[in-house]
Every structure is written in structure tokens, then in C-alpha cells.
Design goal:
By secondary structure, the protein is mainly alpha-helical. It has helices at 8-17, 23-33, 36-53, 58-65, 69-81, 85-95. Helices cover 73% and strands 0% of the residues. The longest helix is centred in the middle third of the chain and has 18 residues, at 36-53. The termini are far apart. It holds the Pfam family Trp_repressor. This is TrpR YerC/YecD.
């Protein structure tokens, strides 16, 4: 059986996330859904992606975020060969600032 993220359960989770209206609601929801370590890992990857798009070096990123080079490499692979999700979000965030 092949793994896929496109399941009914994941769809329901994403639909729930789309109901959140502000950062405080995100805190409430994600603190219930995720462990502290899961949430910190997700936020770390997001910061790594942001820094990679700012052309920071692996060393700078590792020092500032505490991420391992393996994590930085995985995020970099997603930026280069993924579904452009990071770029979509960064572009929207930049437009909304």
C-alpha cells in the first residue's frame, strides 16, 4: 500500500485549519492538535525555509534555528523539488505586509 497525504482525514484537518481566523485561534487549535515538540519542529522548518530563500548559509541557519544540517537539507529539497507551498505562502505573506 503506497503512502499518500491525500486522505479523508488529512482533508478534514485542512478544512479545520481553514476555519481559523487569527493567530490566537491558531495557538488554541495547534496546541490541542500537536505536541509542543511537533509544533516547534514545524515552526523550525518554516524558519529554515524562510532563511534559505534569503540565501542564508547552512551554518547561519543551524546557528540561528538549532536545526540539523539534515533538516536544513530536507527543507532545501522541498524548496527546490516540492510543490511550491513554501513559495506560495511566503509570497502571500509578503503581499500582506
Amino acid at each position: 500500500m503506497s503512502k499518500t497525504v491525500h486522505t479523508e482525514a488529512v482533508k478534514h484537518l485542512f478544512e479545520a485549519v481553514l476555519q481559523l481566523e487569527n493567530v490566537e485561534e491558531c495557538y488554541q487549535f495547534f496546541e490541542d492538535v500537536c505536541t509542543i515538540n511537533e509544533l516547534l519542529s514545524l515552526s523550525q522548518r518554516f524558519e529554515v525555509a524562510k532563511m534559505l530563500t534569503e540565501n542564508k548559509t547552512y551554518l547561519e541557519i543551524a546557528e540561528q534555528t538549532g536545526a540539523s544540517t539534515a533538516t536544513i537539507s530536507r527543507v532545501n529539497r522541498s524548496l527546490n523539488y516540492g510543490n511550491d507551498g513554501y513559495q506560495m505562502v511566503f509570497s502571500r505573506m509578503e503581499k500582506n505586509q
